[in-house]
Structures are given as structure tokens and as C-alpha cells.
Structure of Histidinol-phosphatase:
Amino acid sequence: MTYSDLELAFELADAADKVTLGGFLGVLDIELKSDRSPVTAIDRNAETAIRQLLAQYRPGDAVHGEEHEDTGAGNRQWIIDPIDGTKNFIREVPVWASLISLSVDDIVTVAVVSAPALSRRWWAVRDEGAHAQWFGPGGVRTRKLTVSEVDAFEEASFSYSSMRGWTENGLETGFLDLQRATWRQRAFGDFWSYVLLAEGAVDIAAEPEVPLYDLAAVSLIVEEAGGTFTDISGRRGPGGGSAVATNGILHERVLSVLTDTNTH
């Protein structure tokens, strides 16, 4: 069977969902990686399932994932996080997802984020917009995503992952200033911050230190929903090691607050 890249990304997400949802709420053997982050056999098995399909349908493509060594070479690279939100997963919090994206010449062109415990999925194709699906008793609901039009901090909702990273990276002052300046602050965290931004429910999302496999898929979804996605220095895209995502209108002001140390 011949798949387009988006169709294949859906197949990869389906394969990951089968593994992750099957292991959710079960007895888990939890290990700590060298960076002290947790990992389970479910994480590894989900990435293996994705890699097996890629080996079958895209054998010439490179693969970069969280749980296994990079494979392949060339200008096409699949970027995978089998479970974004493993800490939630192991504590039986249903907010976790598989992140799957394709980068061509270092530009993310296809992205799928699948959160089966929430019965939701988001996807985007470059220059074709971003979409979301809800799976429920009434069937499947699909809609195109658009970021908010909020243009003032006093009306803006700010989501983040944790306080610790901001402190460890010397950015605590800007982070706290942004918290004080905005209308609402919630640590939705991980992928959830960014897809909520793409839906227009959140206006600002930021993380001070985060790897490519956590950002590649959500960056395209945010951009295709009309938002802006950079690192803290303002560099576009998911490869800068940090993330600032906004509805676009607020972006320069957010960057200014997060990086301004002259008045403190």
C-alpha cells in the first residue's frame, strides 16, 4: 500500500496508540534514564512499533526518537516522542501523547499529536493548516484550528510545564514577570500547552529547556494554526532547545519580558 506522508503519520499514531493505551493504568516497570527522567517499557515499545512501520514504508528515511538511537541519513527525518508526558502516564494522569513529525531539509512538514486517553488528535501539514479531532459517543468531530486574537497581557492565558527549569536556566525573573503580567497562569505542561494554544484556548506557552522531539510536532501545529513558535532568543522553529509559542500578536512582548534582565 502507498501512503502519503500524512497518511503514514496517522498509521504511526495508530500503532503507538495501540501500545500506549494498552499499557495505561497497568502495572509498570519504571526505570530512570541518565538525566533522571522516567521511562517504561511502554515508551520503548511504542517507539519500536513506529520504527518498524517506518522501516517498512519509508526505509530510506532517517529517524530521531527519544528512546532509541538515531538511524538513517538524508534530508528526510522522522522525529518521534512515543510518550510525551511519561510522568503523567506513570501517575495515571491521562494527559500524555505520542508526537510524530517529518522534517524535510530541517523544516517540519507533517505533524501528528495523538492523545488516546483524552480521545483527541491534532495534526498539520505545512501550508495546509492545522486540525483537531475528538472521538466520542456521537462520532468523530473535526475542526480547523485558529489561535486566539488576544492582544493584551491583561487578557492572556499563559501555560508552562514547571518552575524548576526557569530557575535552573537563570530565567526565573522573566518567568515570574510574565506570570504577574498575564490574566491566567496554568501549568498544563508538555504537548497540552501547545495544542491548547493552537485551539485558541491558551495565548502563550513557554519552556526554558526542551529537546527537539518534544517540540517538532507541536511547532508545526502552532504555526499552521496562525501562531508563532521560536526559542527564547527569537529563533524560529523547534530546534533551539527552548520554546516560546504565542498567538503571534503577543510574541515580541513575551520574548522581551522573558529575556529582560536590565531592570531587575
